[in-house]
Amino acid sequence: MVDRFLARFGDCIAVLHSKLSVGERYDEWQKIKQNKVKIVIGARSAIFAPINNLGIIIIDEEHDSSYKSEMSPRYNAKEIAKFIAKQNNIPLVLGSATPSINTFAKAKTGKIELITLTKRANKSSLPEVNIVDLRQELANGNRSIISNKLYDEIEKNLNNKEQTILFLNRRGFSTFVMCRDCGYTVKCKRCNISLTYHEYSNKLKCHYCGYEIKNLQICPSCKSKNIKYFGTGTEKLQNEIQKLFPNASTIRMDIDTVSKKNSHEEILNKFKSNNIDILIGTQMVVKGHHFPNVTLVGVIAADSNLNIEDYRANERTFDILTQVAGRAGREKEGRVIVQTYNPKNFVIECAKKQNYDEFYNTEIELRKQLKYPPFCDIIMFSISSSNKEEVEQASKKIYCILKNNCKKYNTILEIYRPVVSPISKIKNKYRWRIIAKCNLNNAIVNLVNTTLEEYYKLKFKNTRVVADINPNNMN
Question: Does the domain made of 121-167+266-369 have the CATH classification 2.130.10.10?
Answer without folding.
Answer: no
